[in-house]
Amino acid sequence: MLEIANLAVSHGETLILRDVNMEVRAGAMVCLMGRNGVGKTTLLKSIMGLLRPSAGRITFLGRDITRAAPDVRARAGIGYVPQGREIFPQLTVLENLQIGLLNVRGNHQAILDEVFGYFPALKDFLGRKGGFLSGGQQQQLAIARALVMQPNLLILDEPTEGIQPNIITLIGEVLGSLRKRGNLAILLVEQYLDFAIQFADTYYVMEKGAMVLNGKVSEIDQETIKPYLAF
């Protein structure tokens, strides 16, 4: 579904990503791991078109999107939940979700009801402004806003960061349910190894802007990976 080939991204004269290769297969969950500052978020922003690569290619569903605008990528079927959530704080929960539905055809209420099945608490706060939600509620809203777009690929940047344990458990349950659907690919950036390997099929590890390890989660060597995850 998603293929990244020899990607490089620079900030001025500083090379942030170098020769990055990755693939996300349809229906699979891929976990991207690594310490803070190694280039994970830069890679996700490059996939979404928020940063322009200096070399390499990004292909989605067989189409070269390397130079496509962010809105084109979103309409093509890529849902993005950024680090820090970035909901619209002055809009209500319902209005945030309606933003995600703007380019979606079909029965909007049925789509919302499906998402409320994953995050039932949101239904109780439809009229509340996003800025007045707790951090955990905002994270639920951010994921729900991406899901109502009915994406083919869902990208999540550290969805458990700064979230209380019960919401982390809920997010894990939702990811498990989404994975079982079999029609949605997920690219998850995560610091917590135990959380990541609970759901992912394959993994990649970044260090200094490059991929240093990758493979099947079922064959993961935790002792080899842990030095790359230490804070």
**Major beta sheet, strand line-up:** 6-7-8-3-9-10
Helical stretch count? 8
**Radius of gyration, in angstroms, nearest whole number:** 17 Å
Estimated structural class: alpha/beta
Strand content bin: 25-35%
The CATH superfamily turns out to be: P-loop containing nucleotide triphosphate hydrolases
In CATH, the architecture is 3-Layer(aba) Sandwich
Low-confidence stretches: none
Please characterize this protein's 3D structure.
The chain has eight helices and ten strands. The strands form two sheets. Strands 6-7-8-3-9-10 form a six-stranded mixed β-sheet, with helices on both faces. Strands 2-1-4-5 form a four-stranded antiparallel β-sheet, covered by helices on one side. The chain is 34% helix and 26% strand. The radius of gyration is 17 Å and the shape is globular. It has one domain (2-229): Rossmann fold, CATH 3.40.50. With 231 residues, it is of the alpha/beta class.
Offer a concise description of the structure:
With 231 residues, the chain is α/β, with parallel strands linked by helices. 34% of the residues lie in helices and 26% in strands.
